[in-house]
Amino acid sequence: MLTKPGIVISTTDYDRLYIMLDKLPSTEATVRLADELERAEILDPAKMPPNVVTMHATVMFTLLSTQKSFTYKLVYPQEARSAELLSILTPVGSALIGLSVGQEIEWPLERNRSTLVRIDKVVQ
């Protein structure tokens, strides 16, 4: 697996995500998200660059293995009620948080597979 790129998360997203995680049972998805939060640089929301994926941002990304591009709004699990909304607890959702445009990350999928994800655009 490739080295994970640096990520930045606002104090607001960091705090809200940890509150959510504290209320959920430990699963592969929650552990994966907690690991991402632990490696993040935490910034004041006013200092967050506009090209970084935050909660409720719309992100366009490409799965480099297939060259398929997707556009989703990153949301909390209880908000993911339609096809254009992506839960933070999905493998790709937790991979996206904190990345900025142009960054790539290798992320595990089911059945011992992985994919390389590239951030193409972020709309706050």
From TrEMBL:
The keyword Zinc-finger does not apply. It holds the Pfam family GreA_GreB. Residues 5-42 form the Regulator of nucleoside diphosphate kinase N-terminal domain. The keyword Transcription does not apply. Keywords: Kinase, Transferase. It comes from the Bacteria. Residues 49-119 form the Transcription elongation factor GreA/GreB C-terminal domain. GO terms for molecular function: DNA binding; kinase activity; RNA polymerase binding. GO terms for biological process: DNA-templated transcription elongation; regulation of DNA-templated transcription elongation. NCBIfam families: PRK05753.1. This is Nucleoside diphosphate kinase regulator.
